[in-house]
Amino acid sequence: MSKGPGLFSDIGKKAKDLLTKDYNSDQKVTISTYSSAGVALTSTAVKKGVASTADVAAQYKHKNAVINVKVDTESNISTTLTFTDIIQSTKTIASFKLLDYNSGKLEVQYFHDHATLTTALGLKQNPVIDVSATIGTPSIAFGAEAGYDTANGSFPKYTAGISVTRPDSCASIILADKGDSIRASYLHYLDQPKKSAAVAEITRKFSTNENTFTVGGLFAIDHLTQVKARLNSHGRLGALLQHEIMPKSVMTLSGEVDAKALDRNPRFGLAIALKP
Q1: Distance separating alpha carbons of residues 145 and 133, to the nearest angstrom
Q2: Model confidence, pTM
Q3: Contact 2, 135 (CB under 8 A)
Q4: How many alpha carbons fall within 13 Å on the CB side of residue 174?
């Protein structure tokens, strides 16, 4: 693949991941194993309140192909096939659920040194076609995406964004919701290994004149433990602690509280991911 500007979905992703990734209020356990034949098996169990779900996923890699199959407790069987460089500088992703003939989706990504292009469409009679494009360099990129519904000839979404990336920071501005909202974010790394960082994000929704300001941070206590925290202007505070209990096996303890709510009942989550 090229060293170009990246996909449109990468714009603002680092800041978004720091503010949202791994925060949860559920109990989750993930166990991964690897066979000598190159098959990776991952079992996941999640408890949300009184409801519990589980799934088993298998992944097999062979040359430029990756096959993923997942089966859950509701008897859904999901399959994703990924092929790299069938045509040079492209990635092709096909996904579907068995016995659900309207669930199929085909996506093709094209990478160039100064541009990327993605096209995705549902494999059904009147699909929604999603197209996104990005131009620029790894340092600065401009992009846009749009969705076209062939059933009624409408555009259910269109979005545009810009990102600027430096070795120690990245910033982005995204105009989303068909122009009804704008989100600006800035992330700054506090050390050379990029284990600690601070992030700020502001979102404005024009139709309601509502502004939301969020700040967050990541701090590495040592090479095995890190903490994250976030706080937004609505008084919602979240924090998590991650500890590598053994190589590639991570325990995550997270919690969230609404400081403006009268009851202020906190919500806590626990996630454990075990890998050999």
Answers
A1: 6
A2: 0.87
A3: no
A4: 23
